[in-house]
Design a protein that fits this description.
Helix 1 runs antiparallel to helix 2, helix 2 packs antiparallel against helix 3 and helix 4 crosses helix 7. The chain is built from nine helices and no strands. Helices cover 79% and strands 0% of the residues. The chain has one domain. With 183 residues, the chain is mostly helical.
């Protein structure tokens, strides 16, 4: 719990982390802490199955940062080159609402596939853990499945493409280039 709270706090003061990075890591930390606290409460009430489900979800949520990094490394390995643009340092100065597009669509970020794969794998593992315990307790499962399903939907390639298209139409060509650094 201390690691999750302090990690989210330290990340919020980072001068190099962009809004998308801060958002997913902070949310993962928050859900980790919520699940640990709920797990401890159920253990004290001798509700061991619910305790196990909450603690398993805490592990799932806390693994998101490592999975993101791992899938990012796999993507760079498969791509075969690591070229960082000179505009990457300039992108950290963009307003928060502009950062998600370059983060996902340029070599400055990890791309949208690692985020989608991480969310999908965490959802699959969470469902498998609930199934293996023989009984799904609604608080543990639904409270964790809803945000994880939302992460999968929001990070899916179709959603990212629709978001980028809508943002381009909303901003127009000139503001799009100013906002994202992309043509």
């Amino acid at each position: 719990m201390v690691m999750s709270i302090s990690g989210a706090g330290l990340l919020s003061g980072s001068s190099v982390a962009r809004f998308p990075e801060k958002t997913i890591i902070t949310l993962a930390g928050v859900f980790t802490v919520i699940n640990v606290v709920a797990g401890i409460m159920h253990a004290r009430r001798k509700e061991i199955t619910q305790h196990k489900q909450y603690m398993c979800w805490a592990v799932v949520w806390s693994s998101t940062a490592g999975l993101l990094r791992g899938f990012g490394y796999i993507g760079m390995f498969l791509e075969g080159s690591i070229q960082v643009s000179s505009t990457c340092s300039e992108m950290t100065l963009l307003p928060y609402y502009c950062q998600i597009v370059p983060f996902n669509q340029t070599k400055c970020g990890i791309g949208h596939w690692p985020v989608f794969l991480t969310s999908s794998l965490c959802l699959l593992v969470g469902c498998t853990l609930g199934k293996r315990m023989g009984k799904w307790y609604s608080g543990a499962q639904i409270g964790n499945l809803i945000p994880m399903v939302l992460f999968v939907l929001v990070t899916s390639p179709l959603s990212v493409a629709a978001f980028i298209s809508a943002k381009y139409r909303m901003l127009g060509a000139e503001k799009w280039e100013t906002c994202t650094g992309m043509r």
